[in-house]
Amino acid sequence: MSWQSTSTWKASADPDFMTKMHRILDLYDHPPDNGRVICVDEFGPLNLMPRKGKAWRPAGSPRRLRATYNRRHGVMHMLAALDLTTGKIHYRIRRRKRHVEFLDLVKALRARWPEQKLYIVADNFSPHRHPDVLDWAAANDVELVFLPTYSSWLNWIEAEFTALRYFALNGTDHRSHTEQNAAIAAYIRWRNARARPKTGLATDSPIRTWTHYPAKIA
């Protein structure tokens, strides 16, 4: 007997899970010569609140953060895109995350790489599937590649959000969105200056050898 932590797994009910998963993994492993693979998602909501974290401090003198806060300044949302070719993140921060804001991001990506077809990996959030988005994408050489349900781990940008939260937000207590947005921007600049192409997602995972979706995940 040994002491072990408990983990959870949300099984996908998507009947096309295997097809969609292998389609996305193939795009990651073999990006089309005529195109660019980009992972897109929203991060947030970005509250103004004290966030626990770690920091260098004199021994016995930890930094103290306030325990209470208000929401008078509302929340914001980060819409971000991870370009697998360069490994860089392109983003904007907005008050809303409707289909309008999502389509604006997709249009900006289209303008950045006008000569290439774009393959945009995204989840099934309703703004991503809005008719205006689907129609514009179809008319502008943009293919929206949707994840299977409950499979956010397949979206490569999710790992980048973990790092963003750790390096830019943990241990902070910003009093304005301008201040918090500046901290996020500083991290993204630092990260993009050191970015490398993204290759080899979960290459050692047994999920790559599945021929069908198992009824139970061990």
UniProtKB/TrEMBL annotation:
Residue stretches making up the Tc1-like transposase DDE domain: 36-173
UniProt keyword list: Endonuclease, Hydrolase, Nuclease
GO molecular function: endonuclease activity; nucleic acid binding
InterPro entries tied to this protein: RNaseH-like_sf, RNaseH_sf, Tc1-like_DDE_dom, Transpos_IS630-like
Pfam families in alphabetical order: DDE_3
Record-annotated membrane-spanning stretches: none
Cited NCBIfam families: transpos_IS630
Protein name: DDE superfamily endonuclease
Organism: Lentzea jiangxiensis
